[in-house]
Design a protein that fits this description.
Elements: H1 4-17, H2 29-34, H3 39-44, H4 46-51, H5 58-61, E1 69-73, H6 79-88, E2 93-98, H7 101-113, E3 119-123, E4 136-142, H8 151-161, E5 162-171, H9 183-189, H10 196-200
Parallel strand pairs: 1-2, 1-4, 2-3, 4-5
Helix pairs in contact: 1-7
The structure holds S-adenosylmethionine.
C-alpha cells in the first residue's frame, strides 16, 4: 500500500482538478460560506473558493499584522493565503506550502489574477517545512493535522520556523472515530505503521 501521504496528496489533487465531483471530504464554495468566509470574498476568488476544503475560516479570524511574514501550511487552493497576503500588504509575505502540485497550481493562478505578488508558493511537506528557522510571525494551519498521523513532527517543524513570539492560528476536526460513511475510507488509508487510535488521537 502506498504511503499514507501519497494517498492524501492524491485525494486532494483530484479535488483540485475536479472539485465538482464527489469527494470523501467537503469541498467548495458552499462549504466555505458555511464555515464563515464572506460571500463577497468567495465571489472575488472563485477558483480557491471552489477548492476550499479546510475546517474553518482561519485567515479571517487570525491576527495578521501589516508587514507580517506568514506561513500557510497545507494551503490547498489558497483561500487563506490570498486573504493573508492582502492583510499583510506589500510589506509582508506569505509562504504557501502544500504537497499537492495541483492545489498549488490553483492557488498560484488566483494570486496572479489578483495581482498579489507577495505570496511565495512552495511545494513541500509539513513534516519538513520548506522555510528557514525563526522566519515566521504567523502560521495558519487549516485542517491538515487530521490527515497526518505524524503530528508531532509537524508541531516540531512549526516550532522551528516560528520566530520567538510568533503565533499559530489553526482549526482542526477532533473526533473519536470517523463518521459512518467515512469509516471504510479511513480504514483503507490507515497503514500498518499507524492505526485508527493515532489517527484520531
Ligand atoms: C483539508 S485541506 C485544506 C486546504 C486549505 N488549507 C483550505 O483551507 O482549503 C488539506 C491540504 O493540505 C495538504 N496537505 C495535507 N497534508 C500535508 C502535508 N503533510 N504536507 C503538505 N501538504 C499537506 C493537502 O494537499 C490539502 O491541500
Amino acid at each position: 500500500m502506498a504511503d499514507i501521504r501519497d494517498q492524501v496528496c492524491a485525494a486532494y489533487s483530484v479535488a483540485a482538478k475536479a472539485p465538482e465531483q464527489q469527494h470523501p471530504f467537503p469541498v467548495g464554495r458552499r462549504f466555505a460560506e458555511s464555515v464563515g468566509y464572506s460571500p463577497e470574498l468567495l465571489d472575488e476568488w472563485p477558483g480557491p473558493a471552489s477548492r476550499f476544503c479546510g475546517t474553518s475560516c482561519v485567515a479571517a479570524f487570525a491576527d495578521i499584522p501589516a508587514g507580517a511574514r506568514v506561513l500557510d501550511l497545507g494551503c490547498g487552493g489558497g483561500l487563506d493565503s490570498l486573504l493573508a497576503a492582502r492583510r499583510t500588504g506589500p510589506g509582508g509575505t506569505v509562504t504557501a506550502v502544500d504537497f499537492s502540485a495541483a492545489m498549488l497550481e490553483v492557488a498560484r493562478a488566483a494570486a496572479e489574477e489578483a495581482d498579489l505578488g507577495n505570496i511565495d508558493f512552495r511545494r513541500g511537506d509539513a513534516e519538513t517545512i520548506p522555510a528557514e528557522n525563526s522566519s515566521v510571525d504567523v502560521a495558519l494551519v487549516n485542517g491538515i493535522f487530521n490527515l497526518n498521523p505524524r503530528r508531532e513532527a509537524i508541531f516540531q517543524e512549526l516550532a522551528r520556523v516560528l520566530k520567538p513570539g510568533g503565533k499559530v492560528f489553526g482549526a482542526e476536526i477532533i473526533r473519536r472515530e470517523a463518521p459512518g460513511p467515512l469509516r471504510g475510507v479511513v480504514r483503507a488509508l490507515v497503514t500498518s505503521s499507524s492505526n485508527t487510535d493515532n489517527w484520531f488521537a
